[in-house]
Amino acid sequence: MVCVKKCETYEKETILKCIREIFEQNKVLEGISGLTVAVKPNLVCKKTPEHAATTHPVVVWAVCKLLKDSGANVIIAESPSGFYEAGLLKSLYKITGIEKAALESGAELNFDTSVTEVENPDGKYLKKLKILTPLAKADRIINIAKLKTHSMMVYTGAVKNLFGSIAGLEKTQYHFQLSDYDDFADCIIDIFLANSPVFNIIDAVTAMHKVGPTAGEPYQLNKIFAGNDAFEVDVVATRAVNIDCMRVPVLKRAAERGLVSSEADKIILAGDVKTGQLVPAADFVVKYNDSLSRLHFSDGILGKIMAYSMRPRPVFNKNKCKACDECVKCCPAKVIHIEIRGKNKYAKVNLDGCIRCYCCQEVCMFKAIDIKKPLLNKIVVRNKSSK
Fold this sequence. Notes:
Blueprint: E1 2-6, H1 12-26, E2 36-41, H2 57-69, E3 73-76, H3 86-96, H4 98-105, E4 108-109, E5 115-119, E6 128-132, H5 133-137, E7 140-150, E8 154-156, H6 170-177, H7 181-195, E9 199-209, E10 217-227, H8 230-240, H9 249-256, E11 269-271, H10 301-309, E12 313-316, H11 326-330, E13 336-341, E14 344-349, H12 359-363, E15 369-372, H13 375-386
Parallel strand pairs: 1-11, 2-3, 2-7, 3-4, 7-9
Antiparallel strand pairs: 1-10, 5-6, 7-8, 9-10, 12-15, 13-14
Helix pairs in contact: 1-2, 2-4, 7-9
């Protein structure tokens, strides 16, 4: 069952009422007294709430307040893109508004940057992995995601939010070792299963569309999605923004692994929207990345060259780039460097080694990186689709 609540504002009492009703309907607070609960928001980068790149602090505040009022020990934990260091976490919490949310709710902010190895028997690739210690040690995890588009994985919501349980730059190793999108999707599913949050919330009062997960535009969806089953929550959320969930690698692989039904209409809805009443947002803009996988190229060198030449690529805008070095640090393939031309400095990528993970775009604070499809890609896909 997935609870869909209508909510048009981040006004504190409105959000608190909404989250309280969700918790009551799903009995989230039963038996919570005395337990340590880790709250995992999406704090991908240092952006203020109005950018819609991170979980809104009022949603985090409401969840933490209700947990604290019920007697739980609450800790907020997250590892953003880039380095995982206490000093950087402090500025991240402050800029995203989470520091204030913790102070007002009585929750603790995590500054422990250690990791703990956990067993993951249900994993496909990852039977053991290291996750953030506060998540590994918590009695329960509550997952608070943000609904956004994603340049690599099409959509990010409840399941993918647990990729933030992997510490800092270790995330880049997963990108590098599993650069195929379906393999990487299985990796994300494995990481989610290792954490096994007891409840999942997606903040979609203001979502992000177009070029997510950090460089897109806010989209007022006026909804909060929630449920015990994160896969079902994601299927319903993608339906709400008119995304074909079978073109989202994580949900496609989850369906193939028997973890979720791909048909949103078969999932029971509760809250303000009942089963069969969910109307998709027609003007929500998403860019799919599977156009090439649906085309057939000949085997051999020529086919490989053809496929490679048509893959979307990161394009760096020299005028917007501030040469901050963040993309250089996070690049899994180590193919980005800072070019110095006289008085000008800017980031430059060697596309020959680029694995198209788009981590560079994700961490760029200045929206200096676009993901462009080559002209040949557009022509071939358009011709193929018209037949």
